[in-house]
Amino acid sequence: MLKTLLIKNYALIEEISVEFSRGLTIITGETGAGKSILIDALGLLLGERASTEMIRTGAEKAIVEGVFDVQGNDRMKEILRNNESDASDDMVVRREINSKGQSRCFVNDSPVSVSLLKEIGDVLVDLHGQHEHQSLLRAETHIDFLDDFGGYQKEIEEYRMSYRVLVDLTSKKRNLQDQEEQLKAKKQLFDFQIKEIDAISPQANEEEALEAELKILENSEKLNELTSSVYHLLYEAESSVRDALVNARKTLEQLSGIDASFENSVSEAKSAEVIVDELSKFVQSYHSRIEFNPERLEEIRERLGALSLLKKKYGGTLHALIAYRAKIGEEFKFAENFESEIAKLEKEIAGAQSETGKKAETLTQKRKDFSKKLEKAILETLSELGIAKAKFSAIIQQRPMDGAAHTAVVKSGNGFVEATSKGIDHVEFFLSTNVGEDVKPLAKVASGGEVSRIMLALKGALAASDKTPLLIFDEIDTGVSGRIGQAVGLSLKKLSKHHQVIAITHLPQIAGLADTHFSVEKTEANKKTSTRLRLLQNEERIKEVAKLLSGENITEAGLKSARELMGIK
Questions:
Q1: Among 175, 178, 285, CA closest to 230
Q2: Given strand 440-441, what is the order of strands in its sheet?
Q3: In principle, which of 207, 332, 405, 492 could form an S-S bond with 190, CB 3.0–4.6 Å?
Q4: Under DSSP, is residue 475 helix (H, G, I), strand (E, B) or coil?
Q5: What residue spans of 290-337 are helical by DSSP H?
């Protein structure tokens, strides 16, 4: 709901700050006082076109700001989240226009686009009158109104789940088909690359093993010479290390016979003998295995060279080369089996089309059933509002395939029809308000006060299901009076139980039903004209209704009639 509205330097308004309440708010005032300016300012706040002509003479910029209570409004909070804007229970919407023609929009003090402001406005407010901000006049919204009226959310959700599966499969098939030519072009290249890589058949970590073996083979002569030298020093020489250790151990044994403190040294000398013996055996064994193999040496060099060439072509490292081979192997396999993959998808799509079609037909039947109930409810209300000979129809149609590319199509009956996330139906409201005239699209039927009454009838039928929190009716009483005016007022009052309703009126029958009553007044000061909005208290309300009944000269009879009309004793 709209909690507060601030308007500064807009047309004749210097500054207005007003608090609104729930229920039915009525705005009255003399013709030309500026009631329409209020509606225009609200329209600007809801994303309508801005113009520098709206700025009050002498001012640098015009400002319109509204504070909306959006607590519990999940649709509003989802829009804010999707646009990365902060969501809170009180949402401040502001629009500014400066004298250079620049327009700026803000939500909770964060800049937003006009398109987002309009999207927000569509969720928060329905403004009915000489304005375009009327969701019921947009045919694309009619299916949502019918669904809200019917309340068959289970069937809608079941359809949407099936539809999402169908869309995913259709998208997957389209993506595959888009890749077909590309895959064919790559298939020959992949075939060549796979054969080239597989001819070498690189193995993980083989480079390290080959390079270690290469190093040994390249240094076999040096290894032979050095191991022979080490073995000679340790074991074969006249003064070998082993002989020296044996002599040292014997001397230490003699010493330990004299001084027991040498016993540990004897043990250490024996250990050193064992170590030298083991080392000698290892060196001798290694020496005996040294191989002079020029054929194997050349084989390793060729293998490493081949691996190096492959690495340069396919990734720079052995790991990258092996990963690339796995990748193109999968793509080649897929290209080889492309037709079978498409056939498999087509089979799955056919099943999804059939399943989605069944759920869509169930949804269509629900819409047909509830469209009759909606038609009856609206015609009854139109009759009460003085449009007794009206004809109203909610036309439900499907759109056959026309050869164009669609996001999804489903099987329905003996053929296929276009499908959207809302089903296979196109819903549009048609109306005739004159005897002998065929029904026509709602947006083309009426204008002015008549269209407002039609909107009121539709809103009345949809009151409990329509989630738009604020409804504004501008000059809804145009062309009506007396009993019909009373019926219009009662309809507004009934609507205000489900919505916040703001109505501009000249009729006392409507004004007398207000929960909150404002008067628009025009004043002059310092050779400038200003429009102001004043909240009327009880006695002032009675006088305002009496003035609407009898004119400027308020009589006791007029005051009495006003009290009776307002239900005040």
A1: 285
A2: 391-398, 425-432, 440-441
A3: 332
A4: coil
A5: 294-313, 318-336
Overall pTM > 0.85: no
Residues 132 and 212 both lie in one domain: no
Among 290, 313, 333, identify where a domain stops: 333
Domain count, the chain: 3
Taking the CA atoms of residue 500, residue 551, residue 10 and residue 536 in that order, the dihedral angle to the nearest 10 degrees is: -50
- Render pLDDT for 60-101 as a digit per residue (tens, 0 to 9): 999 999 999 988 888 888 888 887 777 778 899 999 999 888
Instruction: State yes or no: pLDDT of 130 exceeds 70.
Output: no
CB-CB contact of 104 with 14 (8 Å): no
Task: Please name the residue that has the structure tokens 């060729």.
Answer: 302
Domain that holds residue 256: 206-333
Transcribe 511-568 into DSSP letters. Answer: HTT-SEEEEEEEEEETTEEEEEEEE--HHHHHHHHHHHHH-SS--HHHHHHHHHHHT-
Q: How far is CA 414 from CA 111, 145, 240, 321, 483, in A?
A: 52, 29, 104, 54, 53
How do residues 50-68 score in pLDDT, each as one tens digit? 888 889 988 999 999 999 9
Which tokens is 17 given?
Answer: 């700050």
pLDDT per residue over 417-459, tens digit each?
889 999 999 999 998 888 888 888 887 775 555 666 777 787 7
Distance CA 83, CA 106 (A): 13
Q: What angle do CA 551, 554, 556 make, to 5 degrees?
A: 135
Whether 178 is in a domain gets the answer: no
pLDDT category at 352 given cuts 50, 70, 90 is: very high
